[in-house]
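Task 17 of the worksheet. Students: predict the tertiary structure of the chain below and write it out as structure tokens. Keep your answer in the requested format; marks are given for formatting as well as content.
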Amino acid sequence: MMNLHKLILTENACYKAGRTITVKGIMVHSTGANNPNLKRYVGPNDGLLGENQYGNHWNTYHPGGREVCVHAFIGKLADGTIATYQTLPWNHRGWHAGGSANNTHIGFEICEDGLTDYTYFQKVYREAVELCAYLCKEYGLTEQNIICHSEGYKQGVASNHGDVMHWFPKHGKSMDTFRAEVKALLATDTKEDTEDIAEPVVTYPEKLTSGYYRVRKTWKDSKSQIGAYRVLANAKVAADKNPGTYVFTNEGVAIYPTDGTSETGTDDYRIHTVVKGDTLWDIATLYLGKGSRYLEIKTLNGLKSNVIYSGWKLKIPN
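Model answer:
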């Protein structure tokens, strides 16, 4: 089961450039450094990544003085488990290919270790297969739309890098086997099988370096604002002291508290009462026009699984 989280690298110059693409493919990269830990590249610490004592993650304007950014990383959390972290919006133009593939491809990095640990390789390889299957379904792609960096170079759409073909063959794999496994996963995925894909666990920094957590009744009602806070804990305290207010991100997403909603909702969401036979997929199709947007409903309601019961009142994004 894919272990997908989200921590957007908002301080990176690539994110700040704000350019978007029409997704036509996926490019697989690996980091080229013996460090399997996600905290090396993703930050700040969200409680799962662990602290990067050097602060040299990619959530800086030019990491290591380079113009570089990808859409996701796969590697180890602080507890040793494997996870994927989405680091750019999927349709954002990344800086990963060193060529025209930046204009067409989602790019993600697999954190390399010493390249000899078969167990680690098998875990991150499978995570990458599941991520690609997920993205193929989201953007109407097939396994034939997936290449690695070295293949991109041969096609003239990427710079001269060898990843991932310096690593995969050491463990009996290739991009052909990778594509075949994505194809097999897509073939077995039915509507019900989407239950097996974990929702992105959206995490929010305890302290912002830019922007504010704002406490107000609704996002549109700026006059009701109690205050703006860099520290999330302080924003939560203010919301607790002022019933009926919520903590909002810079993007206007209400993240605290998660209960106490009205029967009709707010300016930011509607309320749907679950009836027998409802699925998150069907509800997303009804309200949002696309079943695959069920993840937005899960995130907004803090659901940890896709199981819902009659009588539940779910918040639906407006």
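Marker's comment: The radius of gyration is 20 Å. Residues 117 and 253 are 41 Å apart (CA to CA).
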